[in-house]
Design goal:
Strand 1 and strand 2 form a beta hairpin. The chain has one domain. Strands 1-2 form a two-stranded antiparallel sheet. Helices cover 83% and strands 3% of the residues.
Length: 209
């Protein structure tokens, strides 16, 4: 569980380092990605609409983030640590659930056995033993639940920071894409000229009727 704050701190420090890189060198993160990173965006689920090619985006945050992972060893290491931690947490959670189930099954069975004792004095003595043992177990269980609750909150915060990191690192890339493509996609003069020509042709045809 101690690994959680360390990884959260690593994400925050990594994000701060990369923000400084963004401020000092706006194109730095774009250069970290493979040359086909933006092409991957452009070719994502493309389809034809009339005579124009249009894009249908799926999840380009992950597309661009994966491109960064391919070029940044430190980022890959961080993601690997998060993945291992999540896997370990899941396994240990299963162990914790099994631990509680086994203990609760035991005390249920012990209570059922208790009912078959016909000696009232012995029955009272065994009942006290069961109650004392069960109280000690409940104390341990409650302490464990408190720890798991705190860990769950830390895991949620870790996930929040991971999402924030993805967005922080990929915004400069998509903005570079915007800068590279914006001129061509808003150059409407050829379309306007074509429209004017068509309207003119239609007007001439109407005059002939």
């Amino acid at each position: 569980m101690k690994a959680i704050p360390v990884i959260v701190l690593s994400i925050l420090l990594f994000s701060c380092d990369q923000k400084e890189t963004i401020q000092n060198e706006p194109m730095a993160l774009l250069e970290m990605a493979p040359t086909n990173a933006i092409k991957a965006v452009e070719s994502s689920d493309s389809f034809e609409y009339g005579s124009f090619s249009r894009l249908q985006y799926s999840d380009d945050v992950d597309v661009l983030y994966e491109a960064l992972l391919a070029k940044n060893e430190r980022l890959r290491s961080l993601e690997s640590s998060i993945e291992k931690l999540n896997s370990t947490v899941a396994d240990q959670k299963d162990d914790w659930i099994a631990f509680k189930s086994r203990n609760e099954d035991y005390y249920l069975a012990a209570t059922n056995y208790l009912e078959s004792i016909t000696d009232s004095t012995l029955k009272e003595e065994i009942a006290q033993q069961i109650e004392g043992s069960q109280d000690r177990y409940k104390s341990k269980r409650d302490q464990g639940e408190d720890k798991w609750s705190k860990l769950s909150n830390q895991i949620n915060q870790l996930r929040n920071n991971q999402i924030a990191l993805k967005i922080t690192l990929t915004i400069p890339i998509i903005e570079s894409y915007q800068g590279a493509k914006s001129e061509s996609v808003v150059d409407l003069k050829p379309l306007i000229d074509a429209q004017v020509e068509i309207v003119s042709e239609m007007e001439e045809l109407l005059e002939l009727t």
